[in-house]
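Thread: RNase H type-1 domain-containing protein, structure

OP (GT): Posting the sequence first so everyone is looking at the same thing. Length is 310 residues per the record. Can we get the structure tokens written out before standup tomorrow? I want them in the notebook alongside the other entries.
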Amino acid sequence: MPASSWLHHLCDFEFLLFMDFPPEEVFSTLPWLLWKERNDRIFNGHNDPMAGFLLRLHASLKYNQHAWSLKSVVKNSSGHLVLNISWTHPRYDYFKLNVDGSSKGNPGLAGCGGVVRDFTGNWVCGFATHLGVCTSMIAELNGLLEGLNCAWDSGCRRLIVEMDSLSCVQLIRGSLVNLRLAGLLSKIRAMLQREWVVQVTHVYREANRLADLLANIAVLSSTRRRTWWSPPAAVLSILIQDRQEVAWPRFKTSDTRGVKSIQNNEQERVISILSFSSGSPHRNFPSIYFLNQSRRSIKIGSCLLFLFQV
């Protein structure tokens, strides 16, 4: 049977074999198998009948269905969700600042650190500041303030700030109040009100490993402040892993509210975003409906004919 007739017959065929599969699963699997079939015809000279193709499609759908059922069993039996968390690259027109604070005792010997990177994951500047004795909250906020100054001095005017202290993010938002930190918070808000675009976000600590390392270096440092315009040897391993977006597992209870698992996308888990600009850019993701859910047959149409054109 010619390829064009084969495909037209497939598009008009009522898929009674696949009544047990959601239409969106059939549609997502079918183009890939069609592409493989097309390549087999061109490069290997294979010319399998449609019946064989339909059996392969059915087997693939069953395999996917079984895999998803196993995922549910694991989640329900353990009571936990496994989230794959990684540092992610910012948009091409943004820089990213990761900051962290560390206090060995709370209050105890403390330090803060941070790093600014561009959209390729390359190092722009980094710092580690020894703070003496203070609480972890003061260390975190000092890290944010020094990181903002570092980014501003480096010429960054579009900036994403990530920190793993949700309490600090809430303090900056104003949803939490702490009068003892009012002076430090006012300095941070003054920095945020400058002529630039800044987004402050909360992430899991697995996405903030480099800043955490710099903060711990600061705790043990005998120097008040250290600034690096190129990465020191101690951070190269994590820097390379972050550039490759190596993910680290994090376990959450299955009934946790508000948790989203995002696989290596724009951000891992955004709790809040603060935009201190009148024209903060944002992305619009239009909804595209490829298939009517109520239909029980698949009409692929002529848009896939090019797959079989030699």
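GT: Both are above now. Quick notes for whoever picks this up: The longest strand covers residues 123-134. The beta strands are 80-85, 95-104, 108-117, 123-134, 158-163, 197-202, 225-228, 248-253, 274-275.
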